[in-house]
Amino acid sequence: MATRYTDRPIPQISLHDFDARIDEITAQLIHAAENVGFFTVINHGLSDQDIESMFSNSQRFFALPDDVKATVPWSSKNVGWEKNAQVRPSTGMPDTKESYQLQFGENMNDVWIDESHLPGFKTASLEFMTRVQGISEKLMRCFARGLGFREDFFITAHDVSRPNSQTVCRLLHYFALPEESDGKVYHRAGAHADWDFLTLLFQKAGQSGLEICPGREVVTEFGIGDVWTKIEPKTGEIVCNIGDLLMSWSDDRFKSTFHRVKAPCEKGDYYGDRYSIAFFNQPCSDAKIQGPLKKYPMVTGQEFTANAMKRNFAALQEKLKSIAV
């Protein structure tokens, strides 16, 4: 089935003069969450130079030899480096990428790349992550207000200073692909919905590929057969999407929707290396997850993540069976 595209407006929300405009920003954010599931944030306090500096930090890591990156391997604590390892239920094949996933706390013990390889990497990364967390917390205040929770409700649930914080920052490097593929199929990031609370994605101008599928009512078949919208990357614009967890926490009022990084396949597509940075807001493992209407049974942050991983694994097994047939 050929991919179908359409141009759809993605709400753009400015955070300038945040405290004075919080009512206005909350109304814009809630409208975007209810009707689209995606929005972009501008005037958020990070300059293009701040973002490019973090991209440089990321590229310094990925430029290291694989045997050096392997000194900080992916672990069960959801941190570390992986390469060609993530398989999506929508494709049944590995994404052609590598990533280095970072956290704030003790899960990163012995998982930070040694200073002898990348001087200053840890300090620069934590400074950037702290500033992005600050942006996330402004958005969390608005979501809490919109759902009738106390204003610091989601901030408390996502306290990154606690040892059981699950929030992560993922540095991503999608490999350059050949313009002549000789029939081989590549996938940069197959269609998927995030299972976190809220994702903030940074992109580099000129490195296209992100496509979104806004407006779905529920997460069903991993975006297969749907109509997509291309998102042109702008360095200073943060692309945000609602995750499955916030959809549940809002009693399905807010929409978790599909997105992908499509592998280039036609003239005009970007075939070069693509770098992005994804900041996944995930609640502490002991946070209690239940919407104001109590549509779903209460679960902890740890239970929600475990259940999401089980669903993802089950869907992947079904996909692999269909490929085998």
From TrEMBL:
Gene Ontology molecular function terms on file: metal ion binding; oxidoreductase activity
InterPro entries: DIOX_N (IPR026992), IPNS-like_FE2OG_OXY (IPR044861), IPNS-like_sf (IPR027443), Iron_ascorbate_oxido_reductase (IPR050231), Oxoglu/Fe-dep_dioxygenase_dom (IPR005123)
Record domain Fe2OG dioxygenase: where: 165-283
Signal keyword on record: no
Keywords: Iron, Metal-binding, Oxidoreductase
GO biological process: small molecule biosynthetic process
Keyword Oxidoreductase part of the UniProt annotation: yes
Stated family: Belongs to the iron/ascorbate-dependent oxidoreductase family.
Protein name per its UniProtKB record: Fe2OG dioxygenase domain-containing protein
Protein's organism: Talaromyces amestolkiae
